[in-house]
Design brief:
heterodimer; A: 589 residues; alpha+beta; Penicillin-binding protein 2a (Domain 2); Beta-lactamase; 2 domains; five-stranded mixed beta sheet; five-stranded antiparallel beta sheet; B: 364 residues; three-stranded antiparallel beta sheet; 3 strands; 72% helix; globular
């Protein structure tokens, strides 16, 4: 009996113990729940959002660039891109091998993926393939169940209406160099040309989109988004038809064409040849392609219109003549005899015409481009005075055009010679300079600016981006300017003028040819026979130059053409200029 | 007929309504877990709740003597089904747990828990422990436990096997067996454990090891625990709202209609929801304790009552501890809430027996 009571007591005790252990268990679970749901709520709430919410950066659409007549020349196209969830980047390699055969990855793209993985931007996605073709898109749509954590997105990317024609003036876009730390690592910025100059205006600002995704990597829906703000549009002075015409005229020729509006200073066309494909550049060129362009002996990346340096040749005689008239009180009716050469010091200076021009005055000398007449003028010219005067016409100065990397050329003077050659200026060098040879170098743009300033008598400044601007008058005598303009008129419209073959009927054109010598002709060669241009190797042939304005009585367009190693100005550059000016006069006046 | 009405009137309707309310929670959660995909699961769950409740009421009307008389018979019946399942049952998720009778899929290990409790109770009821130091007679009940335990373990179903072992230990404990028995049992277990561990399948070892450091392998076994904790934690105080759990509905939470249904509850109904369910489970346990505690002299009823409620309570808390990261993921459903017919019907049967005990007590 006693034992039974004992057992009963033990059983009660053990029931109680069981109850207590259950209560303990209950408290443990409640405690953990309290910890998870009350104390750590925000941590787990964030983790839960992080699981499902994926942020994608919306890159802004660049502003459109228009020509003067509002024809778009730089727009945007829709680019379909394949991206992977950033947290699943370990899957990239297996996906690439699984996708190959249907969606191929070039070495360049594989390298880019490697770089993209390292980028630490705000996006939860890594772009692994751009420029998906329709076939690739179709394949992916069909197979996407087999590729969780991959999504297709649309992006607007820069696209130029023409691959080649605007490359130098518009430039191109590309990634910034220090992308590692950038929070917008896929943002493309202007690298050259107008794209670079007006980057901040064209760029716009980015937005974002939040997707809700499930654990299987499928995007369920958009949660919310902030739209990207597209960049602002830009209007330029370019006239696409003229630009195209100039490009066509320059095909197969290396050189540059610059045409500007003498009233507004607007650049209507700016062509440099050879060129490159700026659409390819904007999509990203490979190192090989880039190196090939850099090694190309004709340097297609150089914008010859603003950074190609040439001796202005006879086109510069206009400035020499005006300087003599303005500063020396030179009488234009003064005649000098041209026998084909003159002697100065112990050197002989030759005219381009071996038999000479005979007894001629200044106007004839310009018209026929007689060198001897200018040698005679040069005898009384101080180089520093001429150099200062030339600065007015932008020689040796930047014109201030609104795209980067403009060169200012060389307008030599005494100080320049000592600084750069370590020697004193020789009087004979003035003779070379007055006919635009010797040390002097200028850009095609500078030559066009000279012409525009001569034609208007105003300090015309070049602009590509549209803007209303008026220009102050240059401090020059109108009669002297008229004399120079009349001479330019005769160059083209007098049957003795060097560019008579390129004359235009109706609205008259005035201009000046130039043939800039690349080599030094030895006296031995002169004794025998000066070699014809065609007989020389390409690199030694003369540059063909021409600059002009039209119409003569009411100047509107000023133009310069440089055709490298193409011989005399009248043969190549003048006809090109005539064709372009003709189109401009017919349609855009 | 009047007899049946009289018996029905005697039932503990408070306990019945609490049990039905708990299964209603399951009904609500299963709807949320499955409404997006297919309603097959949900409709099947409604049927099971319905059949289970009817079975519970029916069994509650039987006298407890019926169970007492056929305890060993049921045990052997269960054992046969279990052997069938463990050796000839069909494979699902790497385990041989299920058998099919007349097109109905059964998991004999679930019902075996009840039959084991009944036969242990019968054993201790008949062999009144006169001399606690005489352990020799304990060989039979230990065998009663070891045989089904081993059969379930080799399926393998770690969760149910451990629960069987645990409930059995509680029954031995509650029967008043001397401490020394447990002490020597513990020593034997320690010796056997390494052999037992080597016998475990790799994924089972992995599941246990994961408990110690879930962050080690976030996409492997630890992934489930982490995602489950995120689901519960992100529910906060009031939850994200019914049908609005992002972890659950975007499939970050695995097995949301079975083992991880409590995580989904935590996510959608918050701390208020989890607290209510725990409160409900504790209330059911407490009421059953009260009933059982009154049987000082009826060892059979007492052991059956404690056994069944211990099974229910610990199954619930092991499941909850599992999904909040206190215990390893061993694969146990939440009683009366998770989807799974055999488990739910077994708990209804268990409560049917408890209701019958309660009715017998009142009618005495």
């Amino acid at each position: 009996m006693n034992r039974e009571v004992n057992l009963e007591r033990r059983i009660r005790r053990r029931s109680l113990l069981l109850g207590i252990s259950k209560s303990f268990f209950t408290l443990l679970v409640l405690g953990k729940l309290f910890y998870l749901q009350i104390l750590q709520k925000s941590k787990y709430g964030e983790l839960s959002d992080h699981n499902r919410i994926k942020v994608k950066i919306l890159y802004p659409e660049r502003g459109t660039i228009f020509d003067l007549y509002n024809k778009p020349i730089a727009t945007n196209r829709t680019d379909y891109q394949l991206s992977v969830f950033k947290e699943k980047k370990s899957l990239i390699n297996s996906y690439i091998s699984k996708l190959s055969g249907h969606i191929s990855f070039s070495d360049k793209e594989l390298k880019e993926i490697g770089e993209n993985i390292k980028k630490q931007d705000l996006s939860d996605f890594i772009t692994i393939k751009r420029n998906l073709s329709w076939n690739e898109l179709e394949f992916f749509e069909f197979m996407k169940n087999k590729f969780p954590f991959l999504i297709i997105t649309k992006e607007k990317v820069r696209s130029y209406e023409n691959d080649l024609i605007y490359s130098h003036v518009l430039g191109y876009v590309g990634f910034k160099k220090d992308v590692g730390k950038n929070k917008l690592s896929n943002l493309k910025v202007g690298i050259a040309g107008i794209e670079k100059k007006l980057n901040s205006k064209l760029l716009g600002s980015d937005g974002w989109i939040k997707f809700e995704t499930n654990s299987k990597g499928v995007v369920n829906k958009e949660l919310n988004k902030k739209n990207a703000i597209p960049g602002r549009n830009v209007k330029t002075f370019l006239i696409s038809e003229i630009q195209e015409k100039a490009y066509m005229e320059m095909r197969g020729i290396r050189g540059a064409v610059v045409m500007l509006d003498c009233i507004s200073g607007g650049i209507n066309c700016l062509v440099s040849s050879p060129t490159f494909n700026n659409n390819e550049f904007s999509d990203g060129v490979s190192v090989d392609e880039w190196n090939a362009l850099l090694k190309n002996e004709f340097n297609p990346l150089l914008n010859r219109s603003i950074a190609g340096l040439y001796s202005p040749g006879s086109t510069y005689k206009l400035i020499t003549a005006l300087y003599a008239l303005e500063n020396k009180g030179f009488n234009p009716r003064t005649k000098f005899n041209c026998s084909g050469h003159i002697s100065f010091g112990n050197r002989k200076f030759h005219c381009w015409k071996k038999e000479g021009h005979g007894n001629i005055d200044l106007q004839d000398a310009i018209k026929k481009s007689c060198d001897c007449y200018f040698y005679n003028l040069a005898k009384s010219i101080d180089i520093d005075g001429l150099a200062n005067f030339s600065n007015i016409f932008s020689y040796g100065r930047q014109t201030g055009i609104d795209i980067p990397n403009e060169l200012r050329g060389i307008m030599p003077n005494k100080e320049w010679k000592i600084k750069n050659r370590g020697e004193k200026w020789q009087r004979g060098e003035t003779l070379n300079t007055v006919i635009g040879q010797g040390f002097m170098l200028s850009t095609p743009l500078q030559i066009a600016i000279m012409t525009a300033r001569l034609a208007t008598g105003k300090k015309i400044e070049p602009r590509i981006i549209y803007e209303n601007k008026t220009f102050e008058k240059l401090n020059l005598s109108q009669s002297n300017l008229d004399f120079i303009k009349k001479s330019m008129y005769l160059v083209v419209n007098d049957n003795k003028g060097t560019a008579f073959n390129s004359r235009i009927f109706g609205k008259k054109m005035a201009g000046k040819t130039g043939t800039s010598q690349v080599r030094k002709i030895t006296s031995a060669e002169r004794e025998d026979r000066v070699l014809k241009n065609e007989e020389l190797s390409y690199k030694l042939r003369d540059h063909s130059l021409f600059t002009c304005f039209a119409p003569f009585d009411k100047p509107r367009f000023a133009l310069s053409v440089v055709a490298e190693h193409m011989g005399s100005g009248s043969k190549v550059a003048a006809p090109i200029a005539k064709n372009i000016i003709n189109l401009a006069l017919r349609k855009y006046i | 007929m009047t007899d049946i009405f009289f018996k029905l009137k005697q039932l503990n309707w408070l306990l019945i309504s609490l049990i039905l309310f708990l299964s209603f929670v399951g009904f609500v959660m299963i709807y949320s877990a499955t409404f997006e995909e297919e309603n097959k699961i949900f409709i099947s769950h409604i049927y099971k709740i319905f059949i289970g409740s009817l079975l519970m009421i029916f069994l509650s009307l039987l006298d407890i003597d019926f169970w007492k008389r056929y305890s060993y018979f049921f045990y052997f019946l269960g054992l046969i089904l279990l052997i069938w399942a463990s050796f000839y049952g069909y494979l699902g998720k790497g385990a041989r747990r299920w058998i099919s009778i007349f097109g109905i899929n059964l998991q004999p290990s679930e019902i075996m828990k009840i039959f084991l409790i009944l036969s242990l109770a019968k054993f201790f009821d008949e062999k009144k422990i006169q001399e606690p130091r005489d352990y020799f007679f304990l060989i039979l009940p230990v065998l009663l436990v070891i045989i089904p335990f081993s059969l379930i373990l080799i399926q393998p179903d770690l969760g149910t096997a451990m629960l069987v072992l645990f409930v059995s230990i509680v029954i031995f404990f509650i029967s008043g067996i001397n401490w020394k028995f447990f002490f020597s049992f513990g020593i034997i277990s320690l010796i056997v454990t390494p052999y037992f561990w080597n016998g475990l399948k790799e994924y089972q070892k992995q599941r246990i090891l994961t408990l110690f450091n879930p962050e080690n392998d976030p996409l492997g076994s630890g992934y489930h625990i982490i995602q489950s904790q995120i689901a519960i934690g992100s529910g906060g105080t009031f939850g994200k709202g019914w049908l609005k759990g992002t972890q659950s509905h975007l499939d970050f939470l695995p097995e949301k209609h079975t083992d991880f249904i409590f995580s989904m509850l935590g996510e959608e109904f918050g701390f208020i929801g989890t607290l209510s369910v725990i409160g409900l489970i504790c209330l059911i346990t407490f009421i059953t304790y009260n009933i059982t505690g009154r049987f000082i002299h009826d060892i059979y009823c007492r052991i059956v009552g404690y056994g069944i409620i211990t099974n229910f309570f610990f199954a619930s808390f092991i499941n909850m501890s599992m999904v909040i990261g206190i215990l390893p993921i061993v694969g146990l459903p939440l009683p009366l809430v998770s989807f799974g017919g055999s488990s739910m019907i077994t708990y209804f049967i268990g409560f049917g027996i408890i209701l019958s005990i309660d009715r017998n007590l009142n009618s005495r």
